[in-house]
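Case study B.
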Amino acid sequence: MTTSTRSRMPLSVWIVAVALPLLVGLVAVAVQLAWLPELPDPIAIHWGADGADGFGPVWSTTVLTAGLTIGLVGLFAAILLSARGPAPTAIHKILAVSSLAVSVLLCGTVTASVGIQRGLEDAADAPDITPWLIGSVLVGLGAAAIAWAVLPRSVAVATELSRAEPLTLAPGERSVWIAETRLSGGAVTVILLAVGFAIAATAFAIIVSDGLVWPLAFIPVLLVLMCASGISWRVRVDPSGLTVRSQPFGWPRTRVAASDIASVDTSHVEPLAEFGGWGWRWAPGRNFGVIARGGEAIEVTRRDGRRFTVTVDDSATGAALLAAYSGVAR
Amino acid sequence: MLIRIDPGSGVAIYDQIAASVRSDASRGVLRPGDRLPAARELADALDVNIHTVLRAYQNLRDEGLIDLRRGRGAVVTEAAVTGAALVDAVRALVADARRNGVGPQTLIALIREEYPA
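Model:
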């Protein structure tokens, strides 16, 4: 176990994650501004099954392009900035190329939606947007694939596991270990940024569409609920096994029965490098995890090989008791 | 926090719960302001009656180690940490005295000398 050090993210990762997406956004805004004199006002900003069905002021797409690009790039940059440990891992690279792909998709689609309305009297005559949407997706994916190939090879994250020494239990002893684990301040900041951004984007979409897309308001509500349920967990080890429950709703939760446990270890977790973030996570090779912060964690391997990780203080004590109970059940 | 219960030990369950909380405080696992698990949750996990847990919590409150507040639950006090550390030191001191054949009267006299007025 080593103390976490800020990782040295290669410059190429920052170019792919921040510089290129911002450049794409800048070009998109410049092109849209150049087309401004040829556009109908209002312009179409939303397409349904029967063609254009949502309209907004002529400046709305330009503001949308700039705001979404800056917001998304800022979000990816904030996540990458919080990285600790060796870099770039596969997850760092996924974040970087996602930033590029999303900005290309976004700017491509929005700019195309403006471009096809040049010279129209009434925006309701705007042609179908679908081919441009598909094209933007393909270009975005292509850019991501090229960027992936150009970025340095991803480094593997080695996990140091130390097998838990079972606590010595008296016959008939019924002991429990209860601990609370909560998200670190940095993670909460990133999540608040993301939620704030989603709320702003939704409010903008609702306003420019004159309330047409009001059901979108459910998205931030859902996000807030999901994030609130992912900030604090109670971890409990008792004779029945391990239980991790989200506070305050008690859901989602995970139970690993003592009889189902093959081994219990303690480890040191780097959230971003190993799980790609915080909260309820799934990571290839690591399986599920409740990741509140970097640092010590209990790692359980089930009999079928599936693993479950939970980051929690005083993990050695909890792991020792769990090891004792899983041994008793054997 | 670790709560150890051995029904076969002859010690009352609520005393064992209180002793576990004291030992967690002295190990530094519990810090002032930390909240103990709700009595219902602990009773459920230990498979004991909720009144047993409440009695342990009330004893700890009477010793000044926790505050019991409606709606806030059982909160560890400042005194719990200093007090628990002292209890540990005294325990070690007594064990040391016993090993060296020093009787209680002598030990108390020694403490008095170190602690004038």
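The CA atoms of residues 63 and 101 of chain B lie 31 Å apart. The remaining cases will be described in the next quarterly update.
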